[in-house]
Design goal:
Helix content: over 70%
Largest sheet: none
Radius of gyration: 20 Å
Strand content: under 5%
Number of helices: 13
Number of domains: 1
């Protein structure tokens, strides 16, 4: 197959996966749930920061995902590298679109790396994957939701004590919530910015790992625009679902968003692929527990699809690989 045709296919699939990632981006769910902004305003802000985050923060994590995990000597083992890359991109896209259609937030990072692991095991056995790199990443994957739950729980407890001690009457309460509404806007924008930089790696990382001479800046720009398209077209479904998980006010939305914003920004700067979805959902659970607020039904479905993401992405990649490889 002509190399130019192959590269064009890769780029088209990367755009589709970026759209799928945007469709599953729930960063603005606390803003929606606390009724600070309407959906139209949310989509405008999300579009701006999706593009900025991909352009300004996406390079480091894209190179990390693209080059550090899959250990296959394609020439020595007679494996078509383009078939491997295309399989990873398509299988990740399918799983993301399925989850988004169900309104369930999943980790795009986990979907991509699950597909990489499946093909690594299929084609290289136990040595086809860099387990040390995955172990290092998995420590962050396990730690980040724990941090989200714990910090949010503690922040809510502190906020409640502050309100009881210092706020007198409805007017004081309203002024306090208005202040938090402004603060949470800043925190959400930081989250969306770092989330776009982290998530764009799942769309362009593999392609860049194969075609390292591509103009990465242009690739990231196209990815950012594609993320924004996904948010605008389908993202509102996941935003609404997660925004209704528990009762939210500006102050509690702030408590839920702070750990996600901090860890996502630090992780992206450190070039570590993270799951913003896991952190935010864990934070909302911590919020509900600290506030003794009811949780909407659906949490069990979210957890179930989290647990299924690695194995299903791996199995899907293995199944799809054979017809794609035959085409090459």
């Amino acid at each position: 197959m002509d190399p130019a045709v192959i590269l064009t296919i890769f780029l088209i699939i990367s755009i589709l996966i970026a759209i799928a990632i945007g469709a599953n981006d729930e960063s603005f769910a606390p803003i929606y749930g606390s009724r600070i902004m309407n959906m139209k305003q949310i989509l405008i802000l999300a579009t701006i920061f999706a593009i900025l985050g991909a352009l300004l923060l996406g390079e480091g994590v894209a190179k990390s995902v693209g080059g550090d995990i899959l250990l296959i000597d394609y020439d020595l083992e007679g494996i078509e590298q383009n078939a491997v890359v295309l399989t990873i991109l398509i299988s990740t896209t399918i799983w993301l679109i399925l989850a988004s259609a169900l309104g369930l937030p999943i980790s795009t990072t986990h979907a991509t790396i699950g597909a990489i692991m499946g093909l690594g095991l299929l084609l290289g056995g136990g040595n086809g994957v860099d387990w040390g790199t995955i172990l290092g990443m998995s420590m962050w994957w396990l730690l980040s939701p724990i941090v989200g739950f714990t910090i949010t729980y503690l922040v809510v407890v502190i906020l409640n004590r502050h309100k009881i001690k210092h706020l007198n009457g409805f007017q004081d309460f309203e002024r306090s919530e208005n202040r938090y509404a402004l603060i949470i806007l800043v925190v959400i924008c930081i989250t969306a910015f770092s989330r776009a930089g982290n998530d764009c790696s799942n769309a362009v990382g593999i392609v860049f790992g194969v075609e390292g001479d591509l103009n990465l800046t242009a690739l990231l720009a196209v990815t950012g625009i594609s993320l924004a398209v996904g948010i605008v077209v389908l993202g509102r479904i996941v935003i609404k679902n997660l925004g209704r998980m528990t009762e939210l006010r500006p102050s509690t939305a702030f408590a839920a968003q702070v750990p996600t914003a901090a860890v996502m920004l630090i992780g992206t700067i450190q070039k570590i692929p993270l799951s913003g979805s896991h952190m935010l959902v864990a934070s909302l659970v911590g919020l509900a527990k600290a506030s003794n607020a009811p949780m909407e039904k659906g949490l069990s479905k979210i957890v179930a699809i989290w647990l299924l993401t690695f194995p299903m992405s791996a199995i899907l990649a293995i199944i799809i690989y054979f017809p794609i490889n035959a085409g090459f």
